[in-house]
Design brief:
With about 290 residues, this protein is an alpha/beta fold. The chain folds into two domains: about 10-75, Up-down Bundle (Four Helix Bundle (Hemerythrin (Met), subunit A)); about 90-289, P-loop containing nucleotide triphosphate hydrolases (Rossmann fold, 3-Layer(aba) Sandwich). Helices cover about 50% and strands about 15% of the residues. It is built from twelve helices and eight strands. It has helices at about 10-15, 20-35, 40-55, 60-75, 100-115, 130-145, 155-170, 185-205, 220-225, 225-230, 250-260, 280-289; strands spanning about 90-95, 120-125, 145-150, 175-180, 205-215, 235-240, 265, 275. An eight-stranded mixed sheet has the order 3-2-4-1-5-6-7-8, with helices on both faces. Helix 11 links the parallel strand 6 (about 235-240) and strand 7. Helix 5 runs parallel beside helix 6 (about 130-145) and helix 7 (about 155-170) packs parallel to helix 8 (about 185-205). The radius of gyration is 21 Å and the shape is elongated. Bound molecules: guanosine-5'-diphosphate. Guanosine-5'-diphosphate binds near residues 99, 182, 242 and 268. GO terms for molecular function: GTP binding; GTPase activity; signal recognition particle binding. Keywords: Cell membrane, Cytoplasm, GTP-binding, Hydrolase, Membrane, Nucleotide-binding, Receptor. This is Signal recognition particle receptor FtsY. Part of the signal recognition particle protein translocation system, which is composed of SRP and FtsY.
Length: about 290
Protein backbone atom coordinates (compact mmCIF):
# COMPACT_ATOMS: atom_id res chain seq x y z
CA UNK A 1 0.00 0.00 0.00
CA UNK A 2 1.22 3.48 -0.79
CA UNK A 3 2.16 5.46 2.25
CA UNK A 4 -1.06 7.26 3.15
CA UNK A 5 0.51 10.44 4.48
CA UNK A 6 3.07 10.85 1.81
CA UNK A 7 3.52 14.25 0.26
CA UNK A 8 6.03 12.86 -2.15
CA UNK A 9 3.68 13.03 -5.14
CA UNK A 10 3.09 16.73 -4.65
CA UNK A 11 6.71 17.33 -3.75
CA UNK A 12 8.08 15.50 -6.74
CA UNK A 13 7.86 18.74 -8.70
CA UNK A 14 9.83 20.51 -5.98
CA UNK A 15 12.61 18.00 -5.43
CA UNK A 16 12.58 16.42 -8.88
CA UNK A 17 14.24 19.24 -10.75
CA UNK A 18 17.95 19.74 -11.19
CA UNK A 19 18.35 22.90 -9.21
CA UNK A 20 16.56 25.17 -6.77
CA UNK A 21 15.10 28.15 -8.63
CA UNK A 22 12.27 30.65 -8.21
CA UNK A 23 9.55 28.20 -9.18
CA UNK A 24 10.77 25.81 -6.47
CA UNK A 25 9.37 28.13 -3.82
CA UNK A 26 5.98 28.47 -5.50
CA UNK A 27 5.72 24.72 -5.90
CA UNK A 28 6.77 24.13 -2.31
CA UNK A 29 4.14 26.56 -1.03
CA UNK A 30 1.45 25.02 -3.20
CA UNK A 31 2.20 21.51 -2.03
CA UNK A 32 2.35 22.50 1.64
CA UNK A 33 -0.98 24.35 1.39
CA UNK A 34 -2.45 21.38 -0.49
CA UNK A 35 -1.40 19.09 2.36
CA UNK A 36 -3.21 21.29 4.91
CA UNK A 37 -0.23 22.87 6.64
CA UNK A 38 -2.30 26.07 6.64
CA UNK A 39 -1.16 29.51 5.46
CA UNK A 40 0.78 30.49 8.59
CA UNK A 41 2.89 27.35 8.91
CA UNK A 42 3.41 27.24 5.14
CA UNK A 43 4.75 30.78 5.08
CA UNK A 44 6.94 30.30 8.13
CA UNK A 45 8.39 27.03 6.88
CA UNK A 46 9.02 28.41 3.39
CA UNK A 47 10.70 31.54 4.80
CA UNK A 48 12.87 29.46 7.09
CA UNK A 49 13.93 27.22 4.20
CA UNK A 50 14.69 30.16 1.92
CA UNK A 51 16.94 31.53 4.63
CA UNK A 52 18.67 28.20 5.19
CA UNK A 53 19.21 27.65 1.47
CA UNK A 54 20.77 31.12 1.23
CA UNK A 55 22.90 30.59 4.31
CA UNK A 56 24.26 27.28 3.09
CA UNK A 57 24.54 28.67 -0.43
CA UNK A 58 23.11 25.52 -2.00
CA UNK A 59 21.08 24.97 -5.15
CA UNK A 60 20.67 21.23 -4.66
CA UNK A 61 17.02 20.11 -4.18
CA UNK A 62 18.29 17.17 -2.09
CA UNK A 63 19.58 19.68 0.47
CA UNK A 64 16.20 21.39 0.47
CA UNK A 65 14.49 18.09 1.13
CA UNK A 66 16.77 17.39 4.08
CA UNK A 67 16.18 20.90 5.43
CA UNK A 68 12.41 20.48 5.10
CA UNK A 69 12.58 17.23 7.07
CA UNK A 70 14.70 18.89 9.77
CA UNK A 71 12.43 21.92 10.04
CA UNK A 72 9.23 19.91 10.31
CA UNK A 73 10.70 17.45 12.78
CA UNK A 74 12.06 20.23 14.94
CA UNK A 75 8.71 22.02 15.02
CA UNK A 76 6.76 18.82 15.70
CA UNK A 77 9.14 17.89 18.50
CA UNK A 78 8.50 21.03 20.51
CA UNK A 79 5.74 19.27 22.43
CA UNK A 80 6.02 15.93 24.23
CA UNK A 81 3.90 13.21 22.59
CA UNK A 82 4.31 10.71 25.44
CA UNK A 83 1.14 9.38 27.04
CA UNK A 84 1.28 9.77 30.82
CA UNK A 85 -0.12 6.49 32.04
CA UNK A 86 1.88 5.70 35.15
CA UNK A 87 -0.89 6.33 37.73
CA UNK A 88 -2.67 3.23 38.99
CA UNK A 89 -5.26 3.21 37.70
CA UNK A 90 -4.50 5.68 34.91
CA UNK A 91 -7.77 7.27 33.88
CA UNK A 92 -8.07 8.51 30.31
CA UNK A 93 -11.09 10.58 29.31
CA UNK A 94 -11.78 10.57 25.59
CA UNK A 95 -13.67 13.59 24.30
CA UNK A 96 -14.68 14.94 20.90
CA UNK A 97 -17.55 15.78 18.61
CA UNK A 98 -19.69 12.88 17.33
CA UNK A 99 -18.51 11.33 14.10
CA UNK A 100 -14.80 12.08 14.46
CA UNK A 101 -13.98 8.46 15.22
CA UNK A 102 -14.09 8.50 19.02
CA UNK A 103 -15.59 5.06 19.55
CA UNK A 104 -13.31 3.47 16.97
CA UNK A 105 -10.32 5.19 18.56
CA UNK A 106 -11.21 3.84 22.00
CA UNK A 107 -11.39 0.32 20.57
CA UNK A 108 -8.07 0.72 18.82
CA UNK A 109 -6.48 2.34 21.87
CA UNK A 110 -7.63 -0.49 24.13
CA UNK A 111 -6.06 -2.99 21.74
CA UNK A 112 -2.90 -0.88 21.46
CA UNK A 113 -2.55 -1.00 25.26
CA UNK A 114 -3.29 -4.74 25.36
CA UNK A 115 -0.44 -5.21 22.90
CA UNK A 116 1.80 -3.69 25.59
CA UNK A 117 0.29 -6.11 28.13
CA UNK A 118 -1.64 -3.42 29.95
CA UNK A 119 -4.96 -4.37 31.52
CA UNK A 120 -7.79 -2.08 30.43
CA UNK A 121 -11.40 -1.35 31.29
CA UNK A 122 -13.60 0.86 29.15
CA UNK A 123 -16.44 2.99 30.56
CA UNK A 124 -19.41 3.77 28.31
CA UNK A 125 -20.27 7.18 29.69
CA UNK A 126 -22.00 8.36 26.52
CA UNK A 127 -25.19 7.05 28.04
CA UNK A 128 -27.82 8.72 25.85
CA UNK A 129 -27.01 6.95 22.62
CA UNK A 130 -27.85 3.28 23.02
CA UNK A 131 -26.10 2.64 19.71
CA UNK A 132 -22.91 4.23 21.02
CA UNK A 133 -22.91 1.90 24.02
CA UNK A 134 -23.49 -1.11 21.78
CA UNK A 135 -20.75 -0.06 19.36
CA UNK A 136 -18.31 0.45 22.21
CA UNK A 137 -19.24 -2.99 23.55
CA UNK A 138 -18.35 -4.54 20.21
CA UNK A 139 -14.99 -2.78 20.17
CA UNK A 140 -14.23 -3.78 23.76
CA UNK A 141 -14.91 -7.38 22.85
CA UNK A 142 -12.66 -7.18 19.80
CA UNK A 143 -9.89 -5.64 21.88
CA UNK A 144 -10.36 -8.26 24.60
CA UNK A 145 -11.02 -5.77 27.41
CA UNK A 146 -13.85 -5.41 29.89
CA UNK A 147 -16.48 -2.70 29.73
CA UNK A 148 -18.79 -0.97 32.20
CA UNK A 149 -22.10 -0.01 30.61
CA UNK A 150 -24.97 2.11 31.94
CA UNK A 151 -27.70 0.03 33.53
CA UNK A 152 -30.33 2.15 31.78
CA UNK A 153 -30.27 4.51 28.86
CA UNK A 154 -29.58 8.03 30.06
CA UNK A 155 -28.03 6.96 33.38
CA UNK A 156 -25.87 9.73 34.80
CA UNK A 157 -22.60 9.55 32.80
CA UNK A 158 -20.63 10.48 35.92
CA UNK A 159 -21.97 7.43 37.74
CA UNK A 160 -20.80 5.16 34.89
CA UNK A 161 -17.37 6.80 35.07
CA UNK A 162 -17.36 6.28 38.84
CA UNK A 163 -18.28 2.61 38.54
CA UNK A 164 -15.62 2.06 35.90
CA UNK A 165 -12.86 3.52 38.06
CA UNK A 166 -14.21 1.58 41.03
CA UNK A 167 -13.99 -1.67 39.06
CA UNK A 168 -10.42 -0.84 38.05
CA UNK A 169 -9.41 -0.17 41.65
CA UNK A 170 -11.15 -3.32 42.89
CA UNK A 171 -9.71 -5.60 40.23
CA UNK A 172 -6.29 -3.99 39.88
CA UNK A 173 -6.93 -2.96 36.27
CA UNK A 174 -4.21 -0.58 35.12
CA UNK A 175 -5.90 1.70 32.63
CA UNK A 176 -9.41 3.12 32.48
CA UNK A 177 -10.65 4.60 29.20
CA UNK A 178 -13.86 6.58 29.49
CA UNK A 179 -15.99 7.40 26.45
CA UNK A 180 -17.95 10.64 26.73
CA UNK A 181 -20.79 12.24 24.79
CA UNK A 182 -20.08 14.39 21.75
CA UNK A 183 -23.36 16.08 20.98
CA UNK A 184 -22.52 19.34 19.34
CA UNK A 185 -25.77 21.25 19.78
CA UNK A 186 -25.74 21.32 23.55
CA UNK A 187 -22.29 22.66 24.22
CA UNK A 188 -23.05 24.12 27.66
CA UNK A 189 -24.68 20.94 28.88
CA UNK A 190 -21.92 18.86 27.40
CA UNK A 191 -19.19 20.78 29.20
CA UNK A 192 -21.15 20.62 32.47
CA UNK A 193 -21.48 16.87 32.00
CA UNK A 194 -17.74 16.52 31.37
CA UNK A 195 -16.99 18.72 34.37
CA UNK A 196 -19.11 16.45 36.56
CA UNK A 197 -17.40 13.30 35.24
CA UNK A 198 -14.03 14.86 36.02
CA UNK A 199 -15.03 15.91 39.53
CA UNK A 200 -16.40 12.47 40.34
CA UNK A 201 -13.32 10.69 38.99
CA UNK A 202 -10.97 13.09 40.74
CA UNK A 203 -12.50 12.09 44.07
CA UNK A 204 -11.25 8.58 43.34
CA UNK A 205 -7.94 9.22 41.60
CA UNK A 206 -6.08 11.69 39.40
CA UNK A 207 -7.05 11.96 35.74
CA UNK A 208 -4.04 10.88 33.69
CA UNK A 209 -5.04 12.17 30.26
CA UNK A 210 -7.91 13.97 28.55
CA UNK A 211 -7.61 13.06 24.88
CA UNK A 212 -9.44 15.10 22.26
CA UNK A 213 -10.20 13.17 19.07
CA UNK A 214 -10.10 15.20 15.86
CA UNK A 215 -10.91 14.10 12.32
CA UNK A 216 -7.96 15.14 10.16
CA UNK A 217 -10.10 15.25 7.02
CA UNK A 218 -12.19 18.11 8.44
CA UNK A 219 -9.16 20.36 9.01
CA UNK A 220 -9.86 23.83 10.35
CA UNK A 221 -13.64 23.22 10.50
CA UNK A 222 -13.18 20.27 12.78
CA UNK A 223 -10.88 22.29 14.96
CA UNK A 224 -13.45 25.10 15.24
CA UNK A 225 -16.11 22.58 16.25
CA UNK A 226 -13.85 21.23 18.97
CA UNK A 227 -13.10 24.65 20.42
CA UNK A 228 -15.32 24.22 23.48
CA UNK A 229 -13.38 21.08 24.42
CA UNK A 230 -10.08 22.87 24.01
CA UNK A 231 -11.27 25.79 26.14
CA UNK A 232 -13.09 23.91 28.87
CA UNK A 233 -12.13 20.24 29.02
CA UNK A 234 -8.49 20.49 30.10
CA UNK A 235 -7.29 18.54 27.06
CA UNK A 236 -3.81 17.03 27.54
CA UNK A 237 -3.38 15.38 24.15
CA UNK A 238 -4.81 15.14 20.66
CA UNK A 239 -5.69 12.06 18.65
CA UNK A 240 -5.88 12.68 14.91
CA UNK A 241 -8.04 10.16 13.07
CA UNK A 242 -8.54 9.42 9.37
CA UNK A 243 -5.02 10.33 8.36
CA UNK A 244 -5.14 7.43 5.93
CA UNK A 245 -5.71 8.40 2.36
CA UNK A 246 -6.51 11.99 3.20
CA UNK A 247 -3.24 13.54 1.99
CA UNK A 248 -3.78 15.99 4.84
CA UNK A 249 -0.66 15.16 6.79
CA UNK A 250 0.20 18.84 7.17
CA UNK A 251 -2.76 19.27 9.49
CA UNK A 252 -0.71 17.44 12.09
CA UNK A 253 1.69 20.35 12.43
CA UNK A 254 -0.94 23.06 11.94
CA UNK A 255 -3.18 21.69 14.68
CA UNK A 256 -0.39 21.18 17.17
CA UNK A 257 0.94 24.69 16.70
CA UNK A 258 -2.50 26.30 16.79
CA UNK A 259 -3.65 24.56 19.94
CA UNK A 260 -0.34 24.17 21.75
CA UNK A 261 -1.50 20.65 22.68
CA UNK A 262 0.68 17.65 21.74
CA UNK A 263 -0.54 15.00 19.35
CA UNK A 264 -0.30 11.70 21.19
CA UNK A 265 -1.92 9.18 18.86
CA UNK A 266 -2.74 8.96 15.17
CA UNK A 267 -5.43 6.83 13.52
CA UNK A 268 -4.88 5.65 9.99
CA UNK A 269 -7.70 3.28 9.22
CA UNK A 270 -10.85 1.61 10.43
CA UNK A 271 -9.16 -1.58 11.61
CA UNK A 272 -8.30 -2.38 15.21
CA UNK A 273 -4.56 -2.19 14.51
CA UNK A 274 -4.73 1.18 12.79
CA UNK A 275 -3.63 3.39 15.66
CA UNK A 276 -0.07 4.34 16.54
CA UNK A 277 1.75 6.58 18.95
CA UNK A 278 2.99 9.81 17.48
CA UNK A 279 6.69 9.92 16.65
CA UNK A 280 7.74 13.13 14.85
CA UNK A 281 10.77 11.52 13.19
CA UNK A 282 8.79 8.60 11.74
CA UNK A 283 5.93 10.87 10.76
CA UNK A 284 8.18 13.27 8.86
CA UNK A 285 10.03 10.42 7.14
CA UNK A 286 6.71 9.08 5.92
CA UNK A 287 5.49 12.49 4.91
CA UNK A 288 8.51 13.71 2.99
CA UNK A 289 10.05 10.40 1.98
P1 LIG B 1 -17.73 8.63 16.84
O1 LIG B 1 -19.13 9.09 16.51
O2 LIG B 1 -16.83 9.77 17.06
O3 LIG B 1 -17.71 7.64 17.94
O4 LIG B 1 -17.18 7.94 15.51
P2 LIG B 1 -16.99 6.42 15.11
O5 LIG B 1 -15.92 5.81 15.94
O6 LIG B 1 -18.31 5.76 15.09
O7 LIG B 1 -16.39 6.57 13.64
C1 LIG B 1 -17.07 7.26 12.61
C2 LIG B 1 -16.61 6.66 11.29
O8 LIG B 1 -15.25 6.99 11.06
C3 LIG B 1 -16.70 5.16 11.22
O9 LIG B 1 -17.16 4.79 9.94
C4 LIG B 1 -15.25 4.70 11.42
O10 LIG B 1 -14.99 3.46 10.81
C5 LIG B 1 -14.50 5.82 10.76
N1 LIG B 1 -13.13 5.97 11.27
C6 LIG B 1 -12.71 6.14 12.54
N2 LIG B 1 -11.37 6.28 12.61
C7 LIG B 1 -10.89 6.19 11.34
C8 LIG B 1 -9.59 6.26 10.74
O11 LIG B 1 -8.55 6.46 11.38
N3 LIG B 1 -9.55 6.12 9.38
C9 LIG B 1 -10.68 5.92 8.63
N4 LIG B 1 -10.53 5.80 7.33
N5 LIG B 1 -11.90 5.86 9.17
C10 LIG B 1 -12.02 5.99 10.49
Amino acid sequence: MANPWSLSGALRGVFGRKTIDDSTWDDLETSLIGADFGPDVTEQVTDELREKVARYNTTDPADLRRMLRETLEERLSKLDPTLKLSNRPAVVLVVGVNGVGKTTTIGKFAKFLRNFDRSVVVGAADTFRAAAVEQLGTWAERAGVSIVKPQAQGQDPASVAYQTVEKAVREGIEIVIIDTAGRLHTKGGLMDELGKIKRVVEKQTEIAEVLLVLDATTGQNGLAQAEAFIEHAGVTGLVLTKLDGSARGGFVLAVQEQTGIPIKLVGQGEGIGDLTGFTPHVFVQNLIG
